[in-house]
Predict the structure.
Amino acid sequence: MTNHSDDERPASVSRRRFLGATASTAALPLMGAAAGQAAAQTVPPLDPQAPVDVKLSINGEPYRLGLDVRTTLLDALRDHVGLTGSKKGCDHGQCGACTVHVDGRRTLACLTLAVAAQGREITTVEGLARADGPLHPMQQAFVDHDAFQCGYCTPGQIMSAIGCVKEGHAGDDDAIREYMSGNLCRCAAYPNIVAAVRQAKLQMEG
């Protein structure tokens, strides 16, 4: 326990008060300057829903859209461009129904923001063949092997199957099943899909 004499206590309190008052006084100009800077830098809050200018290249055609910056590529394709071939299944990247190609690589459109796809080439199932031309070998193989049944997952399956062949993962049935496992089929047409990928592989690599 520290003892203070009567002579020391007033001097100590006085010193403490003096230092506190000095620090407070010194801080006032700084606080005033900081408040002034904050007031000078205040800007109106941005509206997150305000449309932004987004330029996309889809199936070789340029599109300019005004989109909420949070718009997914899938919603941009379906709701703003009118290309409804890519399907919204789970909307969580788990079923593969929304698969498209971005710069030739299979991509889940429901997990990709449209603004992030600017400057890249997007291909949907509608872009695989011209309206008056022959089907893509993978599309024809799905028809030949009745691999589409209800058809809901078919666009995503076909886009993923093309990627599977181009990536070199269609060497045998086990590899095809492994690298197509991200695409779910409610009709369980998996044997037909594997057969279609085998057939298309021969033509694509032919």
Observations:
- The two ends are 95 Å apart (CA to CA).
- The longest helix spans residues 8-41.
